[in-house]
């Protein structure tokens, strides 16, 4: 009797090992979560690269726009550029820009050159740049300039929020920051006029 039980058990195990019913379902249950994660993460990462690319190109676009200006620039003009940047990048209302015109006034061919802010304006009431800020944080980014030469420092900030949680993809919400230096194309300097607006962040710094 014990031998028959052993034989039945062996036969059942052999039959079970060869039974392929529902194998596809089991494999799908094991693989489907991995596939869903791969598709979701792939989409988020490609979307992040797309957004970063738009942010960079948007900065170049508005920087080139300002460099071609020959008339006086006011706060409404820069605020308008901020809206253009937001439209080009398809970003939310938290995106903002800062335009600063910098002049080299002394020792331009030396490491301790003197850079002076002609004017600076930031949208959404963010802080403007001063001579001290330029010397402390931006001197290394600004290219070599001749005495009296002018460069436009265009900074853009765009908030990116991924479609999926960072716990799933490892990619968190962040600000895309870009800075572009451009020289005025048709004039020696770009004049400003802040008298026709009441923006508190609009301040002539020279």
What brief labels describe this structure?
206 residues, alpha+beta, 5-stranded antiparallel sheet, 5 helices
Word description of this protein:
The protein has 206 residues and is of the alpha+beta class. Helix content is 43%, strand content 20%. The chain has 5 helices and 5 strands, in the order H-H-H-E-E-H-E-H-E-E. The chain has helices at residues 2-18, 23-67, 75-89, 131-138, 166-169; strands spanning 96-106, 114-122, 150-160, 174-182, 203-204. Strands 4-3-1-2-5 form a 5-stranded antiparallel beta sheet, sandwiched between helices. The longest helix is centred in the N-terminal third of the chain and has 45 residues, at 23-67. The protein is elongated. The chain starts with a helix and ends with a strand.
The chain-level mean pLDDT equals: 83
Q: How many runs of DSSP E, i.e. beta strands?
A: 5
Structural class of the helix and strand makeup? alpha+beta
How would the global form be characterised?
Answer: elongated
Order of helices and strands: HHHEEHEHEE
Helix coverage percent of residues?
40-55%
Gap between N and C termini: 106 Å
Share of residues in strands = 15-25%
Major sheet: arrangement of strands: 4-3-1-2-5
Major beta sheet, specifics?
5 strands, antiparallel
What oligomerization state is this entry in?
single chain
> What's the tally of helices?
5
Task: Return Rg in Å.
Answer: 30 Å
């Amino acid at each position: 009797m014990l031998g028959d039980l052993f034989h039945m058990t062996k036969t059942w195990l052999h039959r079970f090992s060869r039974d392929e019913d529902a194998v596809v379902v089991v494999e799908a249950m094991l693989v489907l979560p991995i596939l869903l994660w791969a598709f979701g993460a792939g989409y988020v990462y490609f979307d992040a690269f797309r957004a970063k690319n738009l942010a960079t190109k948007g900065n170049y676009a508005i920087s080139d726009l300002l460099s071609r200006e020959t008339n006086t620039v006011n706060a409404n003009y820069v605020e308008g550029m901020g809206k253009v940047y937001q439209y080009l990048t398809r970003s939310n209302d938290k995106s903002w820009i800062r335009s600063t015109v910098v002049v080299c006034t002394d020792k331009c061919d030396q490491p301790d050159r003197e850079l002076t802010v002609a004017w600076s304006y930031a949208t959404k009431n963010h802080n403007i740049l001063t001579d001290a800020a330029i010397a402390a944080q931006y001197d290394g980014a600004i290219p070599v300039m001749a005495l009296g030469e002018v460069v436009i420092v265009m900074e853009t900030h765009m908030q990116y929020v991924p479609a999926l949680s960072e716990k799933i993809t490892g990619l968190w919400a962040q600000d895309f920051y870009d800075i572009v230096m451009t020289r005025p194309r048709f004039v020696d300097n770009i004049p400003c006029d802040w008298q026709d607006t009441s923006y508190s962040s609009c301040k002539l710094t020279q």
